[in-house]
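User: I've been going back and forth on whether these two constructs are worth ordering. Before I decide, could you fold them both?

Assistant: Sure. I'll take them in the order you sent them. The first construct and its structure tokens:
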Amino acid sequence: MKLITAIIREVQLDKVREALIEADIKRITVSRVSGHGQQRIEEMYRGQIIIPDLIPKIKIEIAVNEAFVDITVDTILKSARTNGAGSVGDGKIFITPLEECIRIRTGERGGTAI
């Protein structure tokens, strides 16, 4: 089992979510987060150019069995890229081992709980 965490642009959420549903990945968690990396956005505020420290992003978390890792990552990669080619600020994907998953309602454990 793996936990896939993707940080993407806010505007790409619907496109990514629809692509995941098409790939038969329907159980996701979405959070609004802020952060910064290489992306720089200049905004005009009261006649002055400012560069915000934190940029709003979307964090998607998906717990998957081993068979769905590549499908999930490829789907996010294809759908989260800006203009199909990608640009600075499109985001990151992190894959971490998931030690245990327990469904609260039934008490199921492991891959069947996902």
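The second construct, handled the same way:
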Amino acid sequence: MKATVHVKLKRDVLDPQGKAIQRACAALGYDAVRDIRQDKLFEVELDAHDETAARALLDELCQKLLANPVIEDYRVVAVEA
């Protein structure tokens, strides 16, 4: 199975990399860009019996490794056979 997991900083957590990108946009003349936040996208290939088992495994993986639940939210975007 293939899955896509989206991990992003919680809204109230500072995003220094996003701010650096925003400043670079302004320096390049893209004044219309008001805010940028950087996220992570993981493409995961895994063995699972069904989508429910895959989502359970992905949830555990996110909580323990892919995301820091204190400052990040995650969402399993897609699971495909």
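Notes on the second construct follow. The radius of gyration is 16 Å. The longest strand covers residues 72-80.
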